[in-house]
Amino acid sequence: VQLQASGGGLVQAGGYLRLSCTASGRTVGIYARGWFRQAPGKEREFVSEIISNGAVINYADSVKGRFTISRDRFKNMWFLQMSSLKPEDTATYYCAVRSPGVSEYRGWGQGTQVTVSS
Fold it and tell me: Which pLDDT value is given to residue 110?
């Protein structure tokens, strides 16, 4: 599967952005669709995931109440609506997928840069 994240940009603190991820290639059998981020000098961290058709949605504590994950099942796309952005949200955001029974995500792609100015 090939993934392309888009929608990043420069925004002031308190602002919002909507990230999109488009999947192509072998998309059959995807169990979970996720978002991760990596800030300079830090490890990649989990942000959110949507499992199956949205039966289960998980968020990192740091983004709960501010970010919303969703998907368009007909277009093999999923989204991350980010609001009340903080400077600490600055990072490169990646989308990824995982298969049933597998704990590791894959298909990272190039990511999209989100920069939040104070």
Answer: 87
